[in-house]
Amino acid sequence: MNQLGLTKLEKLAIGIAVLAVIAVLIPLYRQLVDLKYTADCLGNLKDIATAINLYQLDYQNTLPVAYYANSDGSPQVDEQGYPLTWVLCISSYLRRDVQRTLRCPADPLRGSTLISHPRERGRTLQLSYGFYLPLSAQRVEDLLNPGLTVMIADSVAGGKLGTLNPFPLLNGNDGFVLGFDDSRTMLTPESKFVTRLSVWRLREERGWVEGNLRAFHGKGVNVLHADGHVSTRAPTIIFIERETDERPKPPWSLPQKRDEREESNFSNFLP
Predict the structure, then answer these.
(1) Using CB atoms within 10 A of its CB, is residue 252 exposed (0-12), middle (13-18) or buried (19+)?
(2) pTM to 2 decimal places
(3) Which of 5, 205, 214, 245 is 20 to 30 A (C-alpha) from 43?
(4) Which helix (H) or strand (E) holds 224?
(5) How far apart are CA 183 and CA 37, in angstroms?
(6) Is the per-residue pLDDT at 50 higher than 80?
(7) With bands split at pLDDT 50, 70 and 90, how would you rate the model's confidence at 16?
(8) CA-wise closest residue to 169 among 135, 204, 195, 198
């Protein structure tokens, strides 16, 4: 150091040191934020699970409907033109602020699905979670593996962020329900992906392959299982895998009535 202050070399060294510290701190900060958002989102799903459990006590252990449907299977809408969804079924059982519970804090769209507030007329809510359509109004005991089957997950409406949604509903205001890539309402033998999940491609030209998928959270998609527990699943959850008999494997299992299950088990012993 001279009498006039730092030399140019000393200033350069300090600048490099500051940049190095910043380069280390920024990724660390982002990781901490992601952990906080992931935990808050899982907390939302736990609150939703509690509300669904209370709903089941009043409705013979039946799960909520994914959405109220018209005779052609299309979603019914209210006077504001917004869909009537599973949120209506459980809203009276939610204990915390409804908007806080229904919006994932890591959602960059801050809830891409618009619905009417179930308690305050004229107010709109933003929804970040979708209900797996095959579980709509089903009974948990009809699931072979409820602890492995997804009921609700982070979702995105209208194909925003590059998410998969080849059959949009209600002009794209449809993140309230998780569907399939080859059908609006039903899983088919050709179904390969679950749609409206919060999963998109990092690089479009590489396609929907492992290693090229991104989600709201660093570790993947937050989900609520049919038995009430929550977890974070890798973005590859978007793929539908099959059993040898072509039934979908968990986490996208389909309900199966007890008599159908017994008949299927019996047929395994037939020549």
Answers:
(1) buried
(2) 0.87
(3) 214
(4) strand 221-225
(5) 33
(6) yes
(7) confident
(8) 195
- DSSP 3-state of 251: coil
Range in 22-31, 49-58, 177-186, 220-229 the model is least confident about: 22-31
And the tokens for 15? 């600048």
> Does residue 185 sit in helix, strand or coil?
coil
Question: Residue 173, exposed/middle/buried by CB under 10 A (0-12, 13-18, 19+)?
Answer: buried
What is the rounded CA–CA span in Å between residue 117 and residue 15?
A: 52
195 phi, psi to nearest 5 deg: -100, 160
How many Cβ atoms are within 10 Å of 207's Cβ, its own excluded?
8
- Domain ranges within the chain, ordered by starting residue: 8-263
Residue 78: pLDDT above 90?
yes
Whether the per-residue pLDDT at 259 is higher than 60: the answer is no
pLDDT at position 12 is 80
Which helix (H) or strand (E) segment holds residue 178: the answer is strand 177-180
> What is the distance between the alpha carbons of residues 115 and 118, in angstroms, rounded to a whole number?
9
Quick check: bond before 251 cis, omega within 30? Answer: yes
Cα-Cα-Cα-Cα dihedral of 34, 35, 38, 42, to 10°?
A: -170
